[in-house]
Amino acid sequence: MMKKYLINLFYAFRSPSTCLDEVSRVVMNSNDPYASLQELKSQLSPLYHRTLTIISRVLDGKQDALKLRGIGIWHCLITLSNTSGIELKNYIGQYSELDKGRGMLRDTLKYNVFYIIYLVFIFQIASVAIEVYRVKSLPVFESYLADFGLKMPALTKAVMNDTFMVIFYCVFVFALFFMLVPLFVKKRMRQLQGIPWYLRLTPFYWFVIYNYQKYRFLLYTKIGYKASDSNAIDHALQSIGTLFLPMDEKILLMMAQKNTQFEAELDERLNDLGYILRNQVRRSDMFLGFFFISCVVLMMASFLIAMYLPIFLLPGVVW
User: Fold this and answer.
1) Mean pLDDT score of the chain, rounded to an integer?
2) What is the mean pLDDT of residues 254-275?
3) How far apart are CA 235 and CA 241, in angstroms?
4) Of 162, 196, 214, 235, whose Cβ has the fewest other Cβ atoms within 10 Å?
5) Element (H, E) at 222
6) Membrane-spanning regions, if any (predicted)?
7) Pairwise CA distance, residues 9 & 7, whole Å
8) Residues near 79 by Cβ (< 8 Å), separated by ≥ 6?
9) Which sequence spans correspond to the domains of the chain?
10) CA distances to 22, 127, 194 from 15, in Å
């Protein structure tokens, strides 16, 4: 009984987007999506009520009753439908194509938060050690050196200043939050969502975000083309909204659209961009991690020097 309760509790706290993706794949890959949806409604637990309602509204073409947030990758098809003026039902059949395009990015966009947890753990230990030393040991050195008419070094006095320490901790917390920004970027990319302007400013991720937007554009173009949209390229650009596409590249795509191998051309470009994104994400994560660790090492080294400077003054005092 306890095991069953724990399993149900685990499912209750699952990500809504995960549930939606799973049910959407089952429904859209079936021979009769409508019949599959009705069957699932009668068998699944109430936890899936919201998920089933979203899929039901999409299949009925009621995109006006849905918000673009919290509906998984369905938002891509709804956005294309709203932009092109073509009924949503014409795009529904391309869900598997959309899910396939997202699947190509899954390995690329994996992220591991354990390195953040490790850095936070190390920082906490170092912070406790610093606080103990500056509160317990440094005042003793200050009193001892004052007896000989000596003053504490300026760097050490700064470490003993509470205001300075508060500023230091605030800067470190900001830097830690800065390290978490790519996690938010990758989360949006995994759902093929747009990247807000403030996330596009993330250093080391500029080219990643640009190529991701370009990947979305090509994927949208392919979906529109398969949905018989004669202006698939323009509608895809309008749906993305924030992508600068060189005119020469647009001309090449428009010329390729006149050929029978347009879909193969798009697949080739998507594969190339997927490979480029994998390498760029790996390099960006490496540079960002190196930058953060370098800052931490520099700050910790400054504190160690500040704490040991009074000890170097002791031989002169004793002499």
Assistant:
1) 79
2) 86
3) 10
4) 162
5) helix 206-226
6) 112-133, 164-185, 287-313
7) 5
8) 68, 239
9) 114-312
10) 11, 35, 20
